[in-house]
Amino acid sequence: MKTLLELFHHLDTQYKALRLQIEHMALTEKYRERVRLLTTIPGIGIFTAMAILIELQDVERFRRADQLASYIGLTPSQRSSGEKIRLGRITHCGNGRLRDRFVESSWTLIRYDLDTRATYERIKHQTGSGKKAIVAIARRLVLRVRRVLIDKEPYKLAGAGSLPEGRDKRRETKRLVLRRVPASEGVGIGT
Length: 191
Hints:
The chain is mainly α. 58% of the residues lie in helices and 7% in strands.
């Protein structure tokens, strides 16, 4: 048990150090404004924003929104025969880490953006699958992220949805307090 506790303390210390590095990086001149813009989107916090920015770097390198969705792997596969075109499941080609983050962020987005929620419900009703609907919303979220970064305009919630008190992502970057965790400071169980 002692070995497991030591391992836990070691990994917890590394986790905290990495978390601080990411928070510091988010406040650098290179990322600050883009992180602020991305965190206006419900479901995208500082760490997801940094993952998007680090993985994609410059979204303007994708001339069309379809290219970005394809890069992430949120494009439906296609089977064609003669004049018939059938769209299938997503291709899964592309960046799986970003794809997972966009799908997870989409679950939060549909809670706070009423128009997106209506689109989710419509697709879910048409396909009979919540999974297919949320993947479609994730693809739309990718396109919105691209638009926010290119236009340099914050995301505007559609409908009357609002973020819960104390969870306003637009202010989260401003409230970010950088602190140092001394290497000697251990984390006890239950703290």
